[in-house]
Amino acid sequence: MGLKPGGHYGVVFCGGGPATTGILVCAAEQGRLDTLLGRGTCIIEQSSAIGPGAIGHYPISANTRGATFLTWLDKAGPREAFDAARNAGSTYALARFATVFPRLPLVGEHLASLGDAVRARVESVPGCSVVTEHSVRELTLLDSGGAAITFEPVDGGARITVTADHAVIAMGARPRADLGQLALLPGLDLRPHEHKLCHANALLDERVGLPPGLRRAIARTRKVVVVGGSHSAWSAAWVLIHDRGLRDDRGRPPRVTVLHRSHLRFYFRSVARARAAGYAFDETSDVCPQTGAVNRHGGLRADAHGLAWAATHQGRAAGPVRAISLIDEEGARATAAEALDEAGAVIAAVGYEAILPAITWPDRRPVRLATTESGLQVTEQARLVSAEGTELPQLLAFGLGAGQRATGMLAGEPSYTGRLDAVRLYQNEVGGIVLDSLLGSARA
Ligand SMILES: Cc1cc2nc3c(=O)[nH]c(=O)nc-3n(C[C@H](O)[C@H](O)[C@H](O)COP(=O)(O)OP(=O)(O)OC[C@H]3O[C@@H](n4cnc5c(N)ncnc54)[C@H](O)[C@@H]3O)c2cc1C
User: Distances in Å between the alpha carbon of 100 and those of 67, 103, 269, 273, 344?
Assistant: First the structure.
């Protein structure tokens, strides 16, 4: 495990998925890896490897082309530190999908080889450690500044505590728990359907899986409702119609109704392409001024784009999926209510919330964290904030469910204010924000 004697680090990363490794890759691209490691870095990860996190368990295609996962290849230095990952079979395999959307399990394999290279580099520096198969349990703020991080072996055993100037929480996310509370329209909510309700994560994460009772109900009714209009919602619809086990004896998939509240946004590489497709968008607020892309961050991409486009622009007859916009009108309400009543399962694609350890003040009182309607609140520097409004400069949160929101500082369409969750962003702009927070913004 190679923990540092004295147990004090500059930075402890809690969780070693794509977000954490993204920061180290970003540092390598910016020539700041040695500075980061020179402060003393420790990564604590509960699985046996750092790098892939959850993404390799999603049985869907990536929402960006293979090339976006490989941009680090040319830039990360020192070069020799990353040669093993550059030359890994999974990296070559991913490169074959540079111009198309690769399957995420292949992306996961590539991220595992990148994680191995990051691990080897971190462990090669005196005063740095990578601790796998240990779970972070508690963070305690220290009077002197910094934090104490307590973790324990996943198989049981004594707890270990180290201290750090900064702790970065990047432990991924869990499905939102309050699904039954969701109101779709005034007078239309999911409470009557709680018995057949589950989060989209059951379809999107192969480690979870759709409960057998819901599979049987879908087989019986041939109908499913997906609630939500995001990438996860359309990916869940895609999984439903491609799951061979859900086909009837004539090979037909179940009929999927997507109930979405917000306006569906589609990504296009350029204004010209969006216009050519006949997409109605706002040429100022939906276009990224730096890249010229339409809905760069908020737009549906890849398979989700294809499915949603077919359902909304090619008419109901075009496919097994239909979209109903939840507008407060009698017709929409009646159609949505009927779809919910008839469905064998209701899949809620309504977001994730960050996984956090217990966090306490120096006197061990629990820290209540500030949240917004969409989850954890972090500052533009990725710092956590207490519910009383105190910024906690020693605690950063990053990655799925905890991520930065678009603020206009990063390239993107002005109309998008949601979270920024993507491997390419962790390794580039968003990773850079965390790095600036940890090291200061002065570059070497
Ligand atoms: C369905 C779906 C599809 C997506 N598709 C894409 C895509 O195509 N392209 C893209 O760029 N992004 C995609 N994302 C967004 C994002 O890039 C991925 O979700 C990514 O896996 C997030 O990385 P992460 O490190 O934040 O979280 P995770 O991947 O969940 O990694 C968190 C890590 O923390 C560890 N951990 C958890 N708890 C503890 C603990 N107590 N102690 C120690 N370690 C712990 C976990 O074992 C894991 O390794 C997708 C997200 C979803 C939900």
Answer: 8, 10, 14, 17, 34
Kindly report the average pLDDT of the chain as a whole number: 93
Residue-wise pLDDT for 408-443, tens only, equals 667 789 999 888 899 999 999 999 999 999 999 755
Which residues neighbour 32 within 8 Å (Cβ) at sequence distance 6 or greater? 435, 439, 443, 444
Structure-token match 């997507």, residue found: 258
Handedness of CA 169, 172, 177, 178 (dihedral sign): positive
Q: Any residues with Cβ below 6 Å from ligand 1, and which?
A: 14-19, 44-47, 53-55, 58, 62-64, 104, 135-136, 170-172, 204, 232, 235, 355, 399-400, 421-424
Give the predicted TM-score (pTM) of the model: 0.96
| pLDDT confidence bin for 329, thresholds 50/70/90 | confident
Percent of the chain with pLDDT over 90: 85
Closest ligand 1 atom to 399 CA: 26
Structure tokens at 315: 């008419």
Q: Residue 426: which of 49, 71, 57, 43 has the closest Cα?
A: 71
The domains found in the chain, sorted by start residue, are 8-174+353-439 (3.50.50.60), 177-264+300-350 (3.50.50)
End-to-end CA distance of the chain: 31
- Among 400, 426, 434, the mutation site with the greatest number of ligand 1 atoms within 8 A of its Cβ is 400
Residue type, 379: T
Burial class (CB in 10 A: 0-12, 13-18, 19+), 309: middle
| Ligand 1 nearest atom to the CA of residue 424, by list position | 11
Average pLDDT over residues 69-75: 93
